Amino acid sequence: MAIVYERPKSLNGAPFTYCPGCTHGIITQQVAAAIDELGIVDDTICVGCVGCGGYIAWFMDTDAIYSLHGRAPANATGIKRMNPDKVVFTYQGDGDLASIGTAEIVQAAHRGEKITTIFVNNATYGMTGGQMAPTTLVGQKTTTSPYGRDAAHCGKPIRMCELLSTIDGAAFIQRVAVNTPGNVRKARAAIKRAFQCQIEGKGFALVEVLSACPTNWGKTPAAALDWIASDMIPYYPLGNFKDFQ
Amino acid sequence: MAKVLMKGNEAMAEAAIQAGCQAFFGYPITPQSEIPEYFARELPKRGGLFLQAESELAAMNMVMGASASGARVMTSTSGPGYCLKLETLAAMTLTRLPAVVVVVMRSGPAFGTMKAAQEDYRMNGNGGYKVVTFAPSNLQEAAEMVYEAFDIADQYRNPVVVMADGMIGQMMEGVDYDKMPPKRTALPPKTWALHGRGARAGKKPQLLFLPDGMGHYGAKHYCETQLYPEIIRNETRVEITDVEDADIVLAAYGTAARMCKNVIRELQGTVRLGMIRPKTLWPFPYEAFEQIGPKCKAIVVPEINIIGQMIDDVRIASAGRWPAHHVGDSQNDFLTPNRIRDKVLAVWEGLQ
Questions:
Q1: Angle at which helices A72-82 and A102-110 cross, to 10°
Q2: Which end of chain A is more exposed for a tag (fewer CB within 10 A), N or C?
Q3: How far is A50 from chain B (nearest CA, A)?
Q4: Domain count along chain A
């Protein structure tokens, strides 16, 4: 019998520890599948972050390091500069990348650092129990915005793709979502292209992935996927912001 | 090669390059900026990488990444930047990644002033880690310590700090690079370095979070109960001068110790002075104080700070046998040899 679907070989087989309905699992799988398709598993170094996304370092069958909160792009810079012929990627959540690590991600893009960043945006801090992130939508209730995010009090959510695409050193910037099978396929293609950007030495590449956090959103997995379509995508439009030749 | 006249910061940078430093990540801050400037000029010519980071924080995390890739790597800073590096330094002690950090101390707290100081003696990150901390007292020694620091970091797979005061960084002196300490042989191979699993036998992937086969508490427990005692046994450094029949012993490091030598000469025939000069602040040379002779009545601890920092360790080493007196300031009334002399004479008169 022919195998039509199997676990990507770039995963080490450890059971995912993400919550039920969390789409980190789908995203991690797309990253691994893209690495498989490009045949780079032996030459890839994964840089994990602090937060739920950091667990990727324990799931990849590649070399990996676990970074301090927000500092993955700086860690990746040190690794890539010492391993210019290897493929180095960071996998960061929105608290990590869009809050505590904004300086590092902006400056990595500014230097045109030849790394690939997978930015998982679920509009909340997942691991610490659902606090407000810079990406939390206006009106969204979290444990630190219990009455809903008030734009007058703490601003409107930050759009990282739009911000980073203004930087010359950024060569590939795209926002995708994993709320439907079609969008998952597009996400895989974007992640693969972000790796290709690095392999071809074009510059900094980032894929933002809108992701569901049913546990902290207080929704069922299905309702959480619906919320990505109804609330997140209208504020965080999907599409390519920057591409390379 | 004969002695070359160099500025302290440049002498330390040159020593690092001669020790095989392959990469430097830094950020400008007075009084150490000549270190990144020297690397920016020299490293690209000599096959290494210099990169200016967006902050001390990022610089230290780049150091962590380069170290994880097996490189000999260094950064440098002063107190305000050292604060920002400490989280990463702590992380590197747990992940067991070697690197060299040069701290050229200025006065604090925080932004403080640009004046030289010895105020960062107790500055540490979280979690109770330890790192070998050198304290040079002249430029030859500063160069030698930086040179040896790379071997020590690699031998124990633990970062090493060279804690120089601003005077050491900014002054000029002759340095002889033919007199560097011998290279340590049989350093452990960096089998854990990240180059992609394809570079490793059997294509075994390496996860650098903790050393192989260790959980978080296992790694911490091993460091604190086995690695640190081993470093204390092997790497404690101290210069001990005439303490067996001293009336008063001076205990000082760095530039303050250098001033003490003037005072010892000046007071010859007036009061018999000995000196204990820690060359490593950790491990602190507590045992050196056991050599102090029966005539000793007091210890004077000159430091370039206002109320004393190392003096606490001197008191621990003294265990109540001798009173310890601070002298020093980092602000209006900067520590000078004359101030040390006056303090010694006042203590001596009080003992008569």
A1: 30
A2: N
A3: 12
A4: 1
